[in-house]
Amino acid sequence: MARIKKLRQKGFTIVDNTVIEDTELSWKAKGVFLYLWSKSDDWQFYEVEVAKHAKDGRDSLRSALKELETRGYLRRARDRNDKGQVTTSDWVLSEKPMLENPTQEKPMQENDTLPSTDLTKYLSNQELNNSCSSKQLDETNAFVAYQLSGATLNGKTTPMLTDYVQRLGNDLVCHAIDIMSVQASHPNFSFLQKILDGYEDAGITTVEQAVEAEKLYKDKKRQRQNNWSNRRNNASNEVEWYE
Predict the structure, then answer these.
(1) For residue 125, which of 30, 74, 117, 195 is within the disulfide window of CB 3.0 to 4.6 Å?
(2) Which InterPro entries has this protein been placed in (predicted)?
(3) Which top CATH class is 13-127?
(4) What are the sequence ranges of the domains in the chain?
């Protein structure tokens, strides 16, 4: 028998022992619970981001979340609109198993991506499950698409991106992310913000309008370049003729 000596440092998490002593939970599920529980009330949760903080990978994280849900430590419910699309996702994390663990009318698909979620004791997020216009970013969630572009979110930019999604819609934000990933050498929120602000200033509310506006801009730019090239050629000819 070995004794445990604890070397306590600053920065600790207080949690009920129930979840720790639950023999029906795997060590993996317990670890994930403690990690999520340790975060502050205003912490933003992304499955792809959490998966980066351990070597297990995303599939392992998903199985741990499902395990916590099965045992009642996690409850998640999704609301759908008339088209069957997910509109909101509410999460509750509890130190002790919740007696009720209702399931949604349509079960979560294996490949569903977890949305941006305000997490601690109560988690709530807005998930818009529309399709991105991007061929390169095939994720259906703007938050996931943003991170896949190579850009990162923080406590300041996350609510700003959420606000853009709510105002402009998931499809249009995804389209802007696609533009950013192609044009920006280092994708970042400032670059994306310029695109989205440009959409709002121009009254653009759909991907179709954005594509048309971008086409007109490219045509005008090409015309200006052609005019400039013609002026240079004419000037060059005049000089050569004069000489």
Answers:
(1) 117
(2) DnaB/C_C, DnaD, DnaD-like_sf
(3) mainly alpha
(4) 13-127, 130-243
- Residue 220 burial (C-beta neighbours within 10 Å; 0-12, 13-18, 19+): exposed
- C-alpha distances in Å from residue 145, one per residue of 12, 135, 219, 226, 234: 33, 11, 28, 36, 48
Task: Between 190 and 110, name the one with better pLDDT.
Answer: 190
- d(CA 88, CA 86) in angstroms, rounded, equals 6
> What pTM, to 2 d.p., does this model score?
0.40
